[in-house]
Specification:
about 350 residues, Alpha-Beta Plaits, TIM Barrel, 2 domains, about 20% strand, elongated, binds phosphoenolpyruvate, binds manganese (II) ion
């Protein structure tokens, strides 16, 4: 249920309505837009055992203009709740709006030289944030699992060297505290998209969350996972389409480019594309990246390694620095045409 407050409403009235909602046993999420204040209500408003009808109670408030039921199961993520697109601020970097933000870096943090060289390279050609996994979700338990906290410390060194904020994955609730010490953005991987206890925990932090679509998630399920994070109070969620599993085996996953316009219609959250895990081969990365900006995405999460030939994970899909430079020249040209800032 969504409450639309009257134009120019006073903060004290917003507080009274919010208290009323909370007294009825629901949570209230206030969005103060440039024109309107909207309160999203989370909880079972149709519960027959409620002593008062929430709709009637709220409509009787002087400063409430209207109340409507949101037809979508995702209320906070829905555009029905918030018309203006969300802009997320990370250490001075703006994500969303007119910005097209490139997050680049290796699949895994491997050693100091690798992460520092890669960070300097991607920074030079326009990446605004550095990615790198320290806790890696690998299909085989015998594959490299990441350096853990040692990898996070190396990411911190790379940040000190380049100024790039850090995006890194948290896989397990037990590692959240340590990841929080180093990460600027918490990545939730495709395999954890429906790990609801992990989603709730990251929802209780003040760090933006980059949520990757599961390889078998529908768009609605993807948005419901964002809702889990948001319903805990963390509104800063970035959605990342990274390819879904289909019958096609020519690419690692099938990039669902149509997810971009569909998500743009449904949600105010920024939408990113991962051309690396979708295409699965470096030769496909430029085309998928250009498709992403043309389709209206807000940014890329892209794997770049200073020497992909010696990478310990995802070697065949990582760009080298020169390939990244060439791609960024093309991305800038497209951004100019499309009215986006890189
Ligand atoms: C990654 O981006 O490091 C990753 C493991 O991707 P995904 O979770 O999309 O497979
Ligand atoms: Mn990878």
């Amino acid at each position: 249920m969504i409450v639309i407050m009257r134009k120019g409403v006073k903060q004290s009235d917003v507080k009274r309505v919010r208290d009323l909602i909370e007294d009825m046993g629901f949570s209230a999420h206030v969005s103060t837009g440039s024109k309107r204040t909207i309160i999203g209500i989370v909880g079972d408003v149709d519960n027959k055992n409620l002593s008062a009808d929430p709709l009637a109670t709220l409509l009787s408030e002087e400063q409430v203009e209207t109340v409507y039921r949101v037809s979508k199961p995702y209320k906070l993520a829905s555009k029905e709740n918030r018309k203006d697109n969300t802009i997320i601020h990370v250490d001075g970097v703006e994500i969303g709006g007119d910005n097209f933000t490139v997050i680049a870096g290796p699949c895994s943090v491997e050693n100091r030289k690798q992460i520092i060289e890669t960070a300097k390279g991607v920074k030079q050609y326009g990446a605004k944030l550095l990615r790198g996994g320290a806790f890696k979700p690998r299909t085989s338990p015998y594959s490299f699992q990441g350096l853990g906290e040692e990898g996070l410390k190396l990411l911190k060194e790379a940040k000190e060297e380049t100024g790039l904020p850090i995006v890194t994955e948290v896989m397990n609730p037990k590692d959240l505290d340590v990841v929080l010490k180093y990460a600027d953005v918490l990545q939730i991987g495709a395999r954890n998209i429906q790990n609801f206890s992990l989603l709730k925990l990251v929802g209780q932090t003040d760090k933006p969350v980059l949520l990757k679509r599961g390889m078998a998630s529908t768009i609605q399920e993807f948005l419901m996972s964002a809702e889990y994070v948001m319903s805990e109070g963390n509104a800063n969620v970035i959605l990342c389409e990274r390819g879904i599993r289909t019958f096609e085996t020519a690419t690692r996953n099938t990039l669902d480019i149509s997810a971009v316009p569909v998500l743009k219609r449904e949600t105010h959250l920024p939408i990113f594309i991962d051309p690396s895990h979708s295409g699965g081969k470096r030769e496909y990365v430029p085309a998928l990246s250009k498709a992403a900006i043309a389709a209206g995405a807000d940014g890329l999460l892209i794997e770049v390694h200073y020497k992909p030939e010696i990478a310990v994970s995802d070697a065949i899909q990582q760009l080298n620095i020169e390939e990244f430079r060439e791609l960024m020249v093309q991305m800038r040209a497209l951004a100019g045409v499309l009215g986006k800032k890189i």
